[in-house]
Amino acid sequence: MLKTPIYMDNHATTRTDPRVLVSMLPYFTEKFGNAASRNHSFGWEAEEGVGRAREQIAALIGGKAKEIIFTSGATESDNLAIKGVLEFYKDKGNHIITSVTEHKAILDSCRTLERAGKATVTYLPVDQYGMVSPDDVRNAITDKTVLISIMWANNEIGTIHPIAEIGRVAKEKGIVFHSDAVQAVGHIPVDVEKNGVDLLSLTAHKLYGPKGCGALWVRSKGPRVRITPIIDGGGHERGMRSGTLNVTGIVGFGAAAEIAAKEMNDEAERLREMRNKLQAGLFERLDEVYLNGHPTERLPGNLNLSFAYVEGESLLMGINDVAVSSGSACTSATLEPSYVIRALGTNEELAHSSIRFGIGRFNTDEEVDYVTERVTKEVRRLREMSPLYEMAKEGIDLKSVSWKA
Amino acid sequence: MSYSKKVLDHYNNPRNVGSFAKDEANVGTGVVGAPECGDVMKLQLKISDSGVIEDAKFKTFGCGSAIASSSYVTELVKGKHIAEAMAIKNTVIVQELNLPPVKIHCSVLAEDAIKAAITDWKKRKGDEAEPSSADKVGQA
């Protein structure tokens, strides 16, 4: 039986896997100790749970357990990576290379440093598929460059960047390389060694773990990467992030990582099939649908489409029993359409018409069929109501019209 | 964001969607907004020689509140004299539909659409002696 509403917004967050929840429960009620309490069994039990989680998470990304620094989430991890590296290496230089489609946690951290006069930042463009070019990274490097930060996969369009190639450029030039891998970890293979990454941001709630728990992996050898903390206090996490550990969250994060390590390959295959079916179904039924993102180098569960002549928020309103998201201005807090889709250089109005489907572990084929029909019906209805669709059908080139906004 | 009942009603059951036939007489067309801003409203008013709005139709590309604002406006102006319609302020639309502050621009656009349609009708009436070249909607 199909149950509505249907959740298909798994890039925003994921449902906590029931197996993850079960692993967490004892840490609320019985093993509730502070992991930093060194002299009683309550502390030891909590520390044991945290230690296991470190192992589980490190195993998923090919790092060492002691290199995991727990944080409150990926926004904090990104802030710590950017600000921590810039502060620590300030005698070496102050130049950051990043890209225009990064998450706001990266972009705004960079802007803050720029405004404070602590950094100069190069924001690399992306190609029409949203991909950064390793050559652009290489050409942007100056003798002041101390950090390269390029996300592993984009949260809106799912494009997977050429991380290994960028990693090689960074190694060659001896520059610290950070990657926000929030959307990638647990969904596609992420190996920090093979890809030459030095710092990696991750978070539990994008891989079926709880919210409020993230990590920054910091390379300890070859080379050892140093960061200055942004939160001071009791010196937890080897002095890099003070604050009592969120033991329940961390235990859940670990359990989620272990499940992902075991099931990721099969799951990716299954999600890719569902995604491709949804994509094919919508392209078959509707004309003038455009894919945003890379046709092949894309997260398995990601589908970002623009339905020309239909505004995204109105479409979301029409498919109100399906939870997806839109790059439309009307759905953003800033009232600006998606900067990621605009960076692709396609029509500005296609950003307003974009819908992001994020298929995840708990979606079913039946749901994909339902969403296909629901979206088709609503796009058709809204196009009947759209003056732009009418004009396009009459053969008027919308670009030739001088609009009075 | 949650929508008011009235916005939902207009969105789900929009009034007077459509376009008048191209050759229909006494029709004024207003197209306001721009695709890259995410809002385009086309409002058409059929106006008698004495200046009374007899019928109205709309098509809108935009969010639910933009669709609701234009739908409501088609109901609001019917039967009104153009002088009255020209005096309609966006605040009437905001109040009727309970639009939140971020959606006020939708009501402004709807007010502009009324003015643009009436202006177009007046222009066409004045131009009647000569063949009209202003058929392409949206052209400034």
Structure described in brief:
The complex is a heterodimer of chains A (405) and B (140). Chain A has 405 residues and is α/β, with parallel strands linked by helices.
Furnish the topology, listing elements before pairings.
The complex is a heterodimer of chains A (405) and B (140).
Chain A (H helix, E strand, L loop, with lengths): L5 E2 L10 H7 L1 H4 L11 H21 L6 E4 L2 H15 L6 E5 L4 H12 L4 E5 L9 H7 L4 E5 L13 H11 L2 E5 L11 H4 L3 E5 L10 E5 L28 H39 L3 E3 L10 E6 L4 H7 L3 E2 L1 E2 L12 H5 L4 H5 L1 E5 L6 H20 L2 H7 L12
Helix pairs in contact in A: 1-9, 3-9, 4-5, 6-7, 9-13
Chain B lengths: L4 H8 L14 E8 L4 E9 L5 E9 L2 H14 L4 H5 L3 H8 L6 H24 L13
Antiparallel strand pairs in B: 1-2, 2-3
Helix pairs in contact in B: 1-2, 2-5, 4-5
Account of the protein in words:
- The complex is a heterodimer of chains A (about 400) and B (about 140).
- With about 400 residues, chain A is α/β, with parallel strands linked by helices.
- Chain A has two domains: about 5-10 and about 265-390, Alpha-Beta Complex (Aspartate Aminotransferase, domain 1), CATH 3.90.1150.10; about 20-260, Type I PLP-dependent aspartate aminotransferase-like (Major domain) (Aspartate Aminotransferase, domain 2).
- In chain A, about 40% of the residues lie in helices and about 15% in strands.
- Chain A has 14 helices and 13 strands.
- Chain A has helices at about 20-25, 25-30, 40-60, 75-90, 105-115, 135-140, 165-175, 190-195, 245-285, 310-320, 340-345, 350, 365-385, 385-395; strands at about 5, 70, 95-100, 120-125, 145-150, 175-180, 200-205, 215-220, 290, 300-305, 320-325, 325, 355-360.
- In chain A, the strands form three sheets. In chain A, strands 2-8-7-6-5-3-4 form a seven-stranded mixed beta sheet, sandwiched between helices.
- The N and C termini of chain A lie far apart (about 45 Å).
- In chain A, about 55% of the residues are buried.
- Chain B has helices at about 5-10, 65-75, 80-85, 90-95, 105-125; strands at about 25-35, 40-45, 55-60.
- By secondary structure, chain B is of the alpha+beta class.
- Chain B is built from five helices and three strands; from the N terminus they run H-E-E-E-H-H-H-H.
- Chain B has one domain (about 5-120): Sufe protein. Chain: A, CATH 3.90.1010.10.
- Mean pLDDT of chain B is about 90; it is low at about 130-140.
- Chain B has a three-stranded antiparallel beta sheet with strand order 1-2-3.
- In chain B, helix 1 packs across helix 2 (about 65-75), helix 2 packs across helix 5 (about 105-125) and helix 4 crosses helix 5 (about 105-125).
- At the A-B interface, helix 10, helix 12 and helix 14 of A face strand 1, strand 2, strand 3 and helix 2 of B.
